[in-house]
Amino acid sequence: MFILDHLNPFPLADRLTANNNSHIWNKYLQLNDGEWIKITAPSGTGKTTLMHILYALRSDYTGNTIFNQHNLRTLAGNDLSTIRQYNLSVIFQDLKLFPLLTAKENIELKRVLQTPYCSSERVYEMAQTLGVTHILEQPTSICSYGEQQRIAIIRALVQPFNWLIMDEPFSHLDQANKKIAATLIAEECIKRNAGLIITDLDDDDLFDYSRKLIL
Amino acid sequence: MTQLHTILKKLIRNSASRTKYTVAIIGMSIAVFLLLTAIQIQVDYNQLLNSKSSRDSIANFLVINKILTDANMGNSTLEDSIVNDIRQQPFTEAIGMLTPSKFKASIQSNSSHFPFYTDISFESVPSEFIDVADAAWTWNEQAEYVPIIIPTFFLDMYNFQFSLSQNLPQLTPAIVKMIVFKVNIYGSTGTATFNGKIVGFSDRISSMLVPQEFMQWGNSKFATKQSGNASRMIIRTKDPGNPKLADYLSKHQLATDADKTRFSKYRKVVDAVVVISGITGGLMLAFALLVFSLFIQLTIASCKEEIRLLIILGASPQQLAKFIFKQFYPANIWMVFVAILGVTILQYFIHQLLAAQHIVLTSFTSIYTLLSALLLLFVLWWVNRNSIRHSIYSKIN
Question: Model ipTM?
Fold first, then answer.
């Protein structure tokens, strides 16, 4: 469970003071386990900032982010790694793949970082589903952004998690591939009984959302 | 874990050039070798010094007297101050005074078949300094005979020089011990005659020794002059080759059997080798450790972005530290192993070399050297571990 207790990021402080119609910033909000939450927001309203706060990547804000009774702002080192290995998975907007590693190695790295949750065969199945088996042995630096995005999606799905955080995960996919990817993600979340938080510019019905919020 | 390490190997590479890394490894191996050699040589020397064969030998007992010069002629007694000073020196384990007889004495044969007569003098020394174990080494006025110990070289001189030149029979130690002769003591109060018998031969003290009881009795009854202190003393020392001992004797104008302190020269050489080898090894090791720490820091610094991303993706600092440790530490184990191998080979050659000179030295590397190597491995482990942890945490914070 996430508790977002009056989050107020420093870079957005002025804007929020002037006009705050957000459901999240500077509000008390509880995200319950297993919830599928869509966060819609136009550019520049802090989608990525929020994702980074939820993944404990930044602490330049006032208020508190509590995850399973841990204050994410103060969590560090091996404790934080354990949460990222077993509880939180993420698809970054900028993907954060290692360009020198092959697509397969990028996925494999995340798979074996902890006790593997799924098998290599399952990874291949997911690659088949998303149509990227042909690039598995290629360095990601020479893959198209759309292919890289699908690799990043698979990488996020090979680990155990309670929450999947996604920051505009389908930005470079066509409608057909978006649907396929969303179905795969939904399948993996259901398997784990996990919640998901997805941010995007526009509203959509790719998932069976339990809540839709505006940032 | 292997799969993870295979992938991490592609991301975190040793950024030192292969040549520089090889030179550093060779340098460190030499440093470790020199250090372990210094320890092994010290252990070897101690072994030679304290081995059963040398511990009980004459070498551990030194008879000391003043060097006789024109200035001190007629006054060669050892003053209390010098005796006390020697007693307090670190090389002195025990001290015993050689009490000279203060009466005239002679010995003569009881047999006309083997006639001899000679004026003589005696000395006595506390029993613990005598290298002849004999139950009869005591005397009282009712005793059947006066036990006497003579230097071994007296018998050698007789057998191999005197008997040949005088056409006399050679005598074995057993025969000499069977001969009973007369001991005459002359004093102002008259003459006393006793039976005397040689009970042993000393390699340690070059003097005619009688039991202390006999000496006290004789000196009290027959002393012709009252003299204060003894002129000679015997000391027991752990290491007669100790250069400090030789320096002390020379500084205080004291003399002992030069042959017994000859080891001091070797000891100085051994000490120099140990010190030079130890200091060089220590300095080289310190520099090598510094270089290796820099290699580690350089590697981590050059992979800073990869490490940051790995941490973001969920790799724990501990996992990364473990991986980097595995990249660097095995080289350290090899270095120490090669150094031990070097010391073992060297020890074998020293063993062979000394065996040719009938000096027994083990051909194996000592346990102290091996323990030192283990300690060194621990130090290297600690330096590696701390260097890695420090570098990783400084990069992610």
Answer: 0.93
